[in-house]
Amino acid sequence: MNLKEILKQLESLADEKVRKQHIKNGARENLYGVKMGDIRTLAKKIKTNHALALELWETENIDARMLAILILNPKELSAVEIEKMVASEQFAWAADWFYNYVVKEYPDKEQFRQKWMNSGDKMLARAGWSLTSGRIARAPEGIDIAAILTRIESEMANEAPEVQWTMNTALAQTGINHPAYRERALAIGEKLGIYRDYPVSKGCTSPFAPIWINEMVRRQG
Q1: Distance from C-alpha of 11 to C-alpha of 8, rounded to nearest angstrom
Q2: DSSP assigned state of 105
């Protein structure tokens, strides 16, 4: 299938409820509103097609970009291309898909982490803090956790919501995975109060760092 055929198929899969929900959550109106399951099914049908993925990305259509993420080959992207793509997507859901399927899987992703955290671009910073959160949780050797906590304490309250979300994740992962810093992480979370009143569905854990940390530690036994 070519670009025109793919876009026609995405349009045929449009769901107005999904479209309205995406727009409510910050998506621009260049989208059809295709269900995630339908996008995944279409991606399986197409399989990896890097050239087509780049064409889909350039449309700036949300559904096309999410499909592109699933069919591109991260190894064929240069560091410059990845940075440009991260900065260009403002819808957090699509941005997080790109992070999980592309950035997180990129062999030399560490080159992005501090650069993006200090970039001044909210979407690059969001991804940079996601990389930092991953390091804190899974590969903390060589990073200064105390300095990261100091930065979170001084900067998170004034950051854009897109950046606050992943900074908060870094804060929570510190408290969950590093007992030596747990008390400080809890204190910072209480002091800032970010997501204290965040609505959550029954059975889900609040993103408010102190609640999140304590619940995960409890589960660890």
Answers
A1: 5
A2: T
Report the first-to-last Cα separation within the chain, whole angstroms.
51
CA distance 116 to 83: 9
Please, where are the H alpha helices in the chain?
3-12, 16-24, 36-46, 50-58, 62-71, 79-88, 92-98, 110-117, 122-138, 145-155, 161-177, 179-192, 209-220
Sign of dihedral through CA atoms 27, 116, 211, 105? positive
Cα dist from 153 to 1, 32, 40, 174, whole Å: 50, 39, 39, 13
**57 with 71: CB under 8 angstroms?**
no
Closest by alpha carbon to 45, among 71, 66, 69, 64? 71
Tell me the per-residue pLDDT of 1-60, one tens digit each, with 9 for 90 and over: 899 999 999 999 999 999 999 999 999 999 999 999 999 999 999 999 999 999 999 999
Give bridge partners of residue 141 from the DSSP assignment.
Answer: none
pTM higher than the cut 0.90: yes
The pair of three-digit structure tokens given for residue 106, joined into one six-digit string: 């990129």
What confidence tens digit (pLDDT) does each residue in 144-167 have? 999 999 999 999 999 999 999 999
